C-alpha cells in the first residue's frame, strides 16, 4: 500500500512538473510571437508580401519565413530577412527574443535609430544590418553583447562617435562600420578586442586611428 502511494505521489509530481514546464514553454514562445508581430507591425512596405502572407498566428512561429527555432528549447534562434526590400523601423520588442543568436536584416530599407533594447540579446553572435538606412548613434550598450562575433553596421547613416564600450566585445571576429557618417577619434578600446580578425571603418569622418596594426 505504501509502495503504491509512493508511486502515485511520484506520478503526480512528475505530471505537475510536466504541466508547469509545458506552460512555461508556451508562455516563452508566445513572448517570441508577440515580439515578431510587433516587428511586423512597424514594417511599412513589404513589396513581395513575404511577411504579410506568412507571419500569421494560424501557424507556428517556427514555420514563419526567415525564422528558425532552437530544437532544444523551441525558442526563436535566428531571424534572417536579408534582401527582401522591407521598409520601416525596427521594433524594440525584438529585444525580448532572449534566445536569438542571429539577427540578419541586410540589404533592406530599415531606418530610424537602432533600438537600445537589442542590446539585451545576450546570446547574440551575429548582428548584420548593413545596407539599410539606420541613423543616429551606435548604442553604447552594444558593448554588453559579450557573445557577439560578427558585427556589420556598414552602409547606413550612423553618426557620432564609436562608443568606447565596443572594446568589451572580446569575442568579436569581424567589425564593419564603413560608409556611414561616423566622426571623432577611433577608440583605443578597440585594441582590447584580441579575437578581431577583420575591421573596416572606411569612408567615414574619423580623426585618427588607434593603431596601424588593426587597419
TrEMBL record:
GO cellular component terms, semicolon-separated: membrane
Organism this protein belongs to: Medicago truncatula
GO BP terms: defense response
GO molecular function terms noted in the UniProt entry: protein serine/threonine kinase activity
InterPro entries in the cross-refs: DNA_repair-toleration, Leu-rich_rpt, LRR_dom_sf, LRR_N_plant-typ
Keyword Secreted found: yes
Endpoints of the signal sequence: 1-23
Record-linked PANTHER family: DNA DAMAGE-REPAIR/TOLERATION PROTEIN DRT100 (PTHR48060), L DOMAIN-LIKE PROTEIN (PTHR48060:SF21)
Domain Leucine-rich repeat-containing N-terminal plant-type: 31-70
Entry annotated with the keyword Protein biosynthesis: no
Listed name of the protein: Putative non-specific serine/threonine protein kinase
Pfam families in UniProt: LRR_1 (PF00560), LRR_8 (PF13855), LRRNT_2 (PF08263)
